[in-house]
Write the structure tokens for this entry.
Amino acid sequence: MKIYLIRHGETMGNREKRYIGTTDEPLTKEAQEKLGEKNAPGVEAVFVSPLLRCRQTAEALFLGQPMRILEELAECDFGKFENKNWQELTKDPDYQAWIDSNGTLPFPGGEDSVRFRERCCRGFEKGVAACFQKKVESAAFVAHGGTIMSILERYGVPHQDFYQWHVENAEGYELFVEPTLWTPSRREIHKIAPLKWQGE
């Protein structure tokens, strides 16, 4: 089964390098126009994060196609850091402690990064299971950078750490999930490549 993991288009918070997690802001006008120019691959199923920026991205790329919302694919709750950028947080001791921990500490007042990654993977597994059940051969998951990095850190082979799977807005990965490598006791994805939009 071929799967496309696609990060949503740019929001104003992304442009200003803010921590945008639970903040439900829309895409910029420019991002919507750029998405409308992309020739998205044909898929049989579309799964999306519940947040507006992902739903707008899926609507632009897969015009008129039904979307299934998976709550587990939502971005992390950044708590105290939400909707702020590093310049605004530079004198915050909680932020410095989080930086010093290499991002391993829970976000103050927000979500623990380990639980966040577990949640994202549960959502992905739910979508994959639905595809196998309905014999779907191609699907798109439109979500967030953190969601995509969580999924690929867990299942990608050879293994790469979370931040090595970073993906820009409106970009993503193309991958294949093979039934023999996707079982209750073994979940691995071996064929992963950067997404190339058709015609680009």
The beta strands are 2-7, 45-48, 68-69, 138-143, 172-176, 182-183, 186-187, 191-194. The mean pLDDT is 96. The radius of gyration is 17 Å. The chain is about 35% helix and 15% strand.
